Amino acid sequence: MTDWTDPDTFAQALENADTREKGNYFEDFAEGDLLAHDLGLTLSRPGNEGWMSQTLNHDPAYWRTDAAHERGFDEPPIHPDYLTAATLGITVEDLSEKGGYFLGRTDVRFPGAPVYPGTELRVESEVVSTATSSSRPEYGIVTWRTRGKDAQTDDVLCSYERTNMIPRREPVATDGSGAAASGSEDEAADGPDLPAEFVVPDGGYFEDFVDALERAADRDAAVAYRHERGRTQDDVTVAALPLATLNTAKQHHNVDVMADSPSGDIVTYGDVTRSTALGHARSDERTWREVGFDDEQFHTFVAAGDTVYAFTRVLEAEDEVSRGASDRAGTVRFEHIAFNQDDEPVYSGTRTAEIRKRSD
Ligand SMILES: C/C(=C\C(=O)SCCNC(=O)CCNC(=O)[C@H](O)C(C)(C)COP(=O)(O)OP(=O)(O)OC[C@H]1O[C@@H](n2cnc3c(N)ncnc32)[C@H](O)[C@@H]1OP(=O)(O)O)C(=O)O
């Protein structure tokens, strides 16, 4: 009788076997397709705390009941970053497990009431568009609108539009026009076009941001600063956090396959990089409530051993809030840039958040 575990026999068996593949190719997506994702998870307090602690997000309203009550929550709620990461994680099996790159995301919003531990998450996606990549014939570019819903009430808890490069079954011929070098000739000749002065807010309250923007106004200045903290990527951030959101992307946990990829190693889940940078930024402000995120991009890979730092630019401040009373908070729009130990940007995006007033 054949011993299938004999190494030579087994090597031959592997060679003869077809692989039962996971994930979808670019050709499997068509504009308008609706996908109800089978996976789901319960948004739990330990899950929330695991995500928030490893990404250095320490806002007490998400940890302590008295601080939650003070902010108007019934109990410490699920943080929008963990909700966003869990919503995306659940989609990976259907949308991006085949591989490719998470290019960007925009219009990240949280339309419902605060989300509390015990909520069961159900997720659906719609194909918004498909496009040829002119620079990479082996990939196509797909954009989806994804909604994370309360499985019991069907309320939308988190919604966003996300774009990935997805491998094609068959590469196509392209004109290569997308492979042009970046950066203008003027920029190369004159150096970067930056303001002469960077203004730093005196504190983290709404009034501090307003004051800093006023100090920078009508001058060659910007309100921009870096945050001191950094977080070196390790097994927990690279592999454990994405797996805890049911994210099956091989990029984060299969060293064997990733050894042959452009990064040569497993890489950090984009939402971990982003939450870490946002955690650094939030540690220097008095956040009241997250409103939304736009124009998010992932510029290069982050891998184990890399350290994620953050840089913030304050774009505008408005003395109003979308819900509740504006005597407690005002709205600030930021640009956050995550960068690595070599000062290379790895993530950027704009964020709108309500920031507590000093008088509160
Ligand atoms: C979740 C999850 C996976 C992950 O979390 S993976 C970790 C996060 N993502 C990354 O680490 C990606 C890091 N980025 C890169 O390594 C490079 O940016 C990348 C993706 C290799 C692209 O580099 P290029 O220099 O080739 O970049 P281009 O600017 O030329 O873009 C290539 C084409 O893509 C189009 N494109 C770029 N961004 C967007 C966007 N936001 N929306 C739409 N299209 C975009 C761009 O126009 C280029 O198109 P061509 O026609 O010229 O090819 C998971 O599983 O999802």
TrEMBL record:
InterPro entries: HotDog_dom_sf, MC_hydratase, MC_hydratase_acr, MCH/BMMD. Residues 167-196 are annotated as: Disordered. One of its GO terms (molecular function) is lyase activity. Pfam families: MC_hydratase. Signal peptide: none annotated. This is MaoC domain-containing protein dehydratase. It comes from Halobiforma nitratireducens JCM 10879.
